[in-house]
Amino acid sequence: ASMGLSGVLLTTDKMDPNVVYNILKITNGNRKHLGNVHKIYKRWTAKIGMTNVGIALHPGAKRFYKEAGVMN
Fold this sequence. Notes:
It is a single chain. By secondary structure, the chain is an all-alpha fold. It has four helices and no strands. It has helices at 17-29, 31-37, 46-49, 59-67. Helix 1 packs parallel to helix 4.
């Protein structure tokens, strides 16, 4: 058996898409620093972030992942 660690940011459709986009952009741009804060960020990538979410992505998240090149 093995265990993994992942994180999901949950929001409602009422949150401004620009806020969601900027949170993901800032997180992605600061992975090295965040990896020193919590181990989840040491291996996090945009591709991992959008994989197996299991729920619909927020429009702001879709924009980020498309710009990151990991979503059509």
